[in-house]
Write a structure and sequence with these properties.
It is a single chain. The protein has an eight-stranded parallel barrel with strand order 1-2-3-4-5-6-7-8, surrounded by six helices. Helix 1 (about 20-35) runs parallel beside helix 2 (about 55-65) and helix 7 crosses helix 9. The protein has one domain: Aldolase class I (TIM Barrel). The chain is globular, with a radius of gyration of 17 Å. The longest helix has 18 residues, at about 190-205. The protein contains twelve helices and eight strands. The protein is of the alpha/beta class. About 45% of the residues lie in helices and about 15% in strands. It has helices at about 20-35, 55-65, 90-95, 105-110, 115-125, 140-145, 145-160, 165, 190-205, 210-215, 225-230, 250-255, and strands spanning about 5-10, 45, 70, 100, 130-135, 170-175, 215-220, 240. Bound molecules: 2-phosphoglycolic acid. The site of 2-phosphoglycolic acid has 13 residues, from strand 8.
């Protein structure tokens, strides 16, 4: 089986200006150093507001912190008269490793569809940025027991038309909407059920080999006290972390989850 390097990705959402960002990234780096974290055992990333990106980039590159960075959205367009949009080439110029696409908050408040999310993922991939593509069901779907079918429908939509070499650079994040920011984390078994089904679907769509190397994250009220059990699931390769990523020590402990067990 392919070795998948775990990834803890902090989704800051619309929090922290560029000055506050400096403080949090420094504190995170110090906390990781205090824990003697070996970056080979789990990768750390921060996904920050656009206005923080240049500052975070210069800090991390200057200090050589073992942390990667990225954005929380990207335009479907490459250049031109699209007021307020930020393009994939602009993010690539800032050495962004990742960009979140299709977060449930963007689907909910900005009407993003699987088709649009697919176009954003293609833009990112076309410019050497790995998209972290979010999928996940709302509470009503979970209550009716249709979560697997629903999420696999989203997976089909967001991966439509990708070439295998593009799909190999995708990261999928299973984020049940009812667990995001609610403190109500999915059980490890809930997370495994859907993450395992996603991997099987990727194997059908592309190949077993590609599916085995693809990283699948869980997101939704993940924190240091529940990360060990989540990471013990065979198809959970990391977490997309909201609230807990705003606390440097807490997030560093999640990155160093192997030492918490
Ligand atoms: P949460 O957010 O960890 O605060 O639940 C996760 C996310 O929205 O990515």
């Amino acid at each position: 089986m392919a070795q998948r390097q775990p990834l803890m990705a902090g989704n800051w959402k619309m929090n922290l200006d560029h000055i506050e960002a400096t403080g949090l990234v420094q504190k995170l780096a110090w906390s990781l150093a205090d824990l003697r974290h070996d970056p080979a055992r789990c990768e750390t990333a921060v996904l920050v507001p656009f206005t923080d990106l240049r500052t975070v980039q210069l800090l991390i590159e200057g200090e050589r912190y073992p942390i990667r960075w990225g954005a929380q959205d990207v335009s479907v367009h490459q250049v031109g008269a699209y007021t307020g949009e930020v393009s994939a080439p602009m993010l690539a110029k800032l050495n962004c490793a990742y960009v979140v696409v299709g977060h449930s908050e963007r689907r909910e408040y900005h009407g993003e569809t699987d088709q649009l999310v697919n176009a954003k993922a293609k833009q990112a991939l076309g410019h050497g940025i790995q998209p972290i593509i979010c999928v996940g069901e709302k509470l009503a779907v979970r209550q009716s027991g249709d979560q697997v079918a629903f999420v696999l429908g989203q997976v089909d939509g967001v991966l439509a038309g990708l070439q295998p070499d593009e799909a190999a650079n995708v990261i999928l994040a299973y984020e049940p909407v009812w667990a995001i920011g609610t403190g109500q984390v999915a059980t490890p078994a809930d997370a495994q059920e859907v993450c395992g089904a996603i991997r099987s679907r990727v194997a059908e769509l592309f190949s077993a080999q590609l599916a085995q190397s693809l990283r699948i994250l869980y997101g939704g009220s993940a924190k240091a006290s529940n990360i060990v059990d989540l990471m013990a699931q065979p198809d959970v390769d990391g977490a997309l972390v909201g609230g807990a990523s705003l606390q440097a020590e807490e997030f560093a402990r999640m990155v160093a989850f192997q030492t918490l067990a």
